[in-house]
Amino acid sequence: MSGTSDGAAAVTATPAAGVQIPDEPPPHGLGVSLPSEDASAKTEGTFPYAADLWAEGLLWAAVLRSPHPRARILSIDTKHAVEMPGVRVIVTHEDVPGDAAHGRGTADRPVFAKDEVRHHGEPIAAVAADHPDTARLAAAAIAVEYEVQEAVTDPQLAFEAEPLHPDGNLIRHIPLRFGDADAVGEVMVEGLYRIGRQDPAPIGAEAGLAVPRPDGGVEIYTASTDPHTDRDLAAASFGLAPEQVKVVVTGVPGATADREDPGVSLALGLLALRTGCPVKLAATREESFLTHAHRHPTLLRYRHHADADGTLVKVEAQILMDAGAYADTSADALAAAVSFSCGPYVVPHAVVDGWAVRTNNPPSGHVRGEGAMQVCAAYEGQMDKLAARLGMEPDEIRLRNVMATGDLLPTGQTVTCPAPVAELLHAVKEAPLPELPKDAPEAEWLLPGGPEGAGEPGAVRRGVGYGLGMVHMLGAEGTDEVSTATVKVSGSVATVICAAVETGSGFSTLARQIVQETLGVEEVHVAPVDTDQPPAGPACHGRHTWVSGGAVERAAKMVRTQLLQPLAHKFGMSTELLQINDGKITSYDGVLSTTVAEALDGKELWATAQCRPHPSEPLDESGQGDAFVGLAFCAIRCVADVDIELGTIRVVEMTVAQDVGRVLNPRQLRARIEAGVTQGLGAALMENLRTARGQVRHPDLTGYALPTALDAPDIRIVKLVEERDVVAPFGAKPASAVPVVTSPAAVASAVRAATGRPIGRLPIRPQAAVAQVGQS
């Protein structure tokens, strides 16, 4: 989401000449670094999260999960567990009164496993007890007899393996054909790329509270990022009407993905309905790793054809995405991967096949930049190979082929939005390079591996690499994007009611800025989100900046008209001749001057509005179609130091230029970009949820490495291109996903430059960064 964020990455950012921030900004409105309303509560530790909730007569829940990635369930015996003191009820698949399966994209995931388990950690039963320890002990006491089966963990074998699900193993195949399939170039390079399983690793593990209602329904309090979808899934599983289930969004402790495993809410709701008591669950970090969606591990085979001068002729690619046990949003991720498989480059001919398949690995789903990140790492690797083959500089071959407005995607869609890719690449290329570290003992910490590293300074090589990335805005392939918002004004206070969840993307701050700008009311509050409000859709792909922000703006403008019409009629002029600034209403000729509060005269004004962007369309049988509403672009130059003997890597600096449309909140925009770059850095160098035959190894924050402040490099934002997209409200574009997509490719490019190695796997292993024998 462009220009909005409520949290910053632990990085430093050097001021950039290309970013204009006013010396004396107005006190509020768009374009100002308005702080988040809940910033103080979050920093002081008083902000209420789902894990902090409490209710009178509270029971505690625990979930029994499968220790096997694949097994038949022969029997489930709850007798001894239910007889334990303090245990109130145990539910299994037999106790699900409604739909037994759920899923965000495809309803193929059981609430509780029935005849078989398909991944490590799949829920089998849930317990409600009067103490959390009692609940956990009772869950462990449930006796399940398994017949363990050989897990299918290699997605390449899923095509020939026996079906792991009644719907089969193939979720989707997209055969994209663009131009002449027989075209060839004078030069051809090929490569094999593997992208690991990145976990969203939210700050807080999943938690929630379910409270039964007198009408036989239930209220669920949880950190949902798409409450209306979660409500509908829950109602279907409980056998209730949607209006009998209410989802109340509590504080979301960070979201770089769907955030919640919906199964947590389903288990809680069933237990609350069965016991008639409030039931709370706070997942352990291990449970969190096992159950929520991860980034799709992906295998990519590429072949690039080019002329002798470096002009691209054709791209051939095969993309295989591991969806894990269930479909979730894998079909959408595959569409993004196939559509962006050639990158922000002009490619006249393309032959691309993409598959998403089921395996017995952990579930995959929506994670920021899904699909686009995996292919970016591959096509940028190919551009480096092509440059090396032709004896060209990596930036030179990229500039020769970059996309611009009016060019075609390989899906046949014309790029109608601003696409300043060349401008972005020029900006990072021309930025000064960081200085080399001094060869002194006090500077040893600057070397790869730090002061305790065993390497020698003479073995360190510096590499400079580039990455160009792109993402789509809003949903794709015909998704009906719509959001509804209500704006109320009473006295000197305005309230925004919109079911757009604040996930750290900064929507609540943006909504306040929009109302301040439109109505001149400084005190603006955003109401808490629940499903009694009209739906606003999921918090992903920059939706809430565009769709929900657009709805807030339209509602605020309707209130503005209500406010100004009586004054305009009284003075015999149109409302267009009146303006609102800093809480004052004035006419163009200075005859009228009054305050907003005086104009309201004790009345309450309100309006409700919707925003629905122009529609997209599904890809056809050849992968063709106008599948995307808009696109955003980014260029990153990475400078990395590599110990070519030990393979240790230190990223020194990431230089960023980004296409943002319009800067809505400068400080929060920087925070979003910095956080996105850092998340991408984790995917490039350390984040990989490892499995052994489908069994998750070390599902904790000790075994799963995340970048810290010591790992984060200097992040220099040298240019923000504010070329507004005319079809988007405010002209703004998403800010956080595209640096996540681009930074892993840039890091890999820098390591290639330093070592001469191909670097086809992310995260980069130390042995892959050891230079070839004889390289200086």
UniProtKB/TrEMBL annotation:
Organism: Streptomyces auratus AGR0001
Segments forming domain Aldehyde oxidase/xanthine dehydrogenase a/b hammerhead: 44-150
Pfam families: Ald_Xan_dh_C, MoCoBD_1, MoCoBD_2
InterPro entries for the chain: Ald_Oxase/Xan_DH_a/b, Ald_Oxase/Xan_DH_a/b_sf, Ald_Oxase/xanthine_DH-like, AldOxase/xan_DH_MoCoBD1, AldOxase/xan_DH_MoCoBD2, AldOxase/xan_DH_Mopterin-bd_sf
Name of the protein: Aldehyde oxidase
Domain of life: Bacteria
Biased composition (Low complexity): 7-19
Region (Disordered): 1-39
GO molecular function: iron ion binding; oxidoreductase activity
